Amino acid sequence: MRYFEDFPVGEIMERGPYVVTREEIIAFARQFDPQPFHIDEDAAGKSIYGGIIASGWHTAAICHKLMVEGLLGQAAGMGSPGLDELRWKKPVRPGDSLRIRIETLEARPSASKPDRGALKLRLEVVNQHGEVVMTEVANALFARRPPAP
Amino acid sequence: MRYFEDFPVGEIMERGPYVVTREEIIAFARQFDPQPFHIDEDAAGKSIYGGIIASGWHTAAICHKLMVEGLLGQAAGMGSPGLDELRWKKPVRPGDSLRIRIETLEARPSASKPDRGALKLRLEVVNQHGEVVMTEVANALFARRPPAP
Predict the structure, then answer these.
(1) pLDDT score at A73
(2) I need a labelling partner for A34 at 20 to 30 A (CA). Which of A81, A92, A116, A118 fits?
(3) pLDDT in tens, A74-100
(4) B141 inside 8 A of chain A by CB
(5) With contact defined as beta carbons under 8 Å apart, do B16 and B98 qualify?
(6) Which residue ranges does the record assign to the MaoC-like domain (chains A, B) (predicted)?
(7) What is the pLDDT, as a whole number, of residue B21?
(8) CA B127, CA A30: separation in Å to the nearest integer?
(9) pLDDT tens digit string along B113-130?
(10) Domain A4-143 grouped into CATH 3.40.50.720
(11) Residues in chain A within 8 Å Cβ distance of B86
(12) Do the Cβ atoms of B64 and A84 come within 8 Å?
């Protein structure tokens, strides 16, 4: 189990890869982001993107999936108040293979609640060409390691 | 069609409602956020939330759905470079009815590209009790209104 103390500032972890399919790009966008360049092959081909691209919110959700499956599932997370920043930098296309990099920017023990601390994490989503397609600065609360008995 | 000029600073629009079902909360979380308090009724009941709550990324995706269906579908949008901030303030639970409020914070014509302008929008997601459950500050590019012929 990974506690607040197990995220030293400057440490960088990597998780993934996750390959994004055309079917899931279209399915996500039909539900949450039904713009032509996400759901319609013909319209997307004529757009500035030259083909279907994933909704930015789909990319963000995949980033979170990799965080949960590769890190939060084995960590003493206590939720997130939110993000300080999110940037969509490059399109994500069918067949792209995405990895995430997680860097601890800040680690601040809570002044009022000694059982927890706040982390500021920088997340980067990187494709198979090494291009950064999305970045986030996220805040998260983690439990502190219980004292040895 | 709504252009850059049609988002005066200070204007507030509302869209929705959208009712969130238990089934979709669990389906979204199984795919992107498989933490016990999002997917497992028993575990969620014993958690600090007292029952299943939606993934924050699901709430963000629903907010975007309401934006696209109620605004971007009839506007000259040219994409978004990202968010300056996102905050998850209250849990979203099965049966909640969500509306969004969209306020234009800033409108800046592009200095280098006279056909477009940048908007800064504040989005609030509000539940049926009037509680703000999520906020965002989003950046978006819109085409300027073409000159009359």
Answers:
(1) 87
(2) A81
(3) 899 999 999 999 999 999 999 999 999
(4) no
(5) yes
(6) 15-110
(7) 98
(8) 23
(9) 999 999 999 999 999 999
(10) no
(11) 82-83, 86
(12) no
A85 to chain B, any CB pair closer than 8 A? The answer is yes
Using a CB–CB cutoff of 8 Å, tell me whether A115 touches chain B. Answer: no
Given its phi and psi angles, is residue A22 left (phi above 0), alpha (psi -120 to 50 degrees) or beta?
alpha
- Residue of A62, A87, A69, A76 lying closest to A140 (CA atoms): A76
Residue type, B95: G
Query: What chain B residue is nearest to A37 in terms of C-alpha separation?
Result: B79
Question: Is the distance from CB of B39 to CB of B58 less than 8 angstroms?
Answer: no
**3-class SS at B87?**
strand
Contact B61 A32 (CB under 8 A): yes
Residue by residue, DSSP assigns A95-114 as T-EEEEEEEEEEEEE-SS-T
Element (H, E) at B139: strand B132-143
Would you call A80 and B56 a contact, using CB atoms and an 8 Å cutoff?
yes
pLDDT for the residue numbered B39: 96
pLDDT of residue A37: 94
Assess contact for B41 and B31: CB atoms under 8 A: no
Query: Which ipTM value was assigned to this complex?
Result: 0.96
Interface probe, candidates B20, B58, B62, B86, chain A, greatest A C-beta count within 10 A: B86
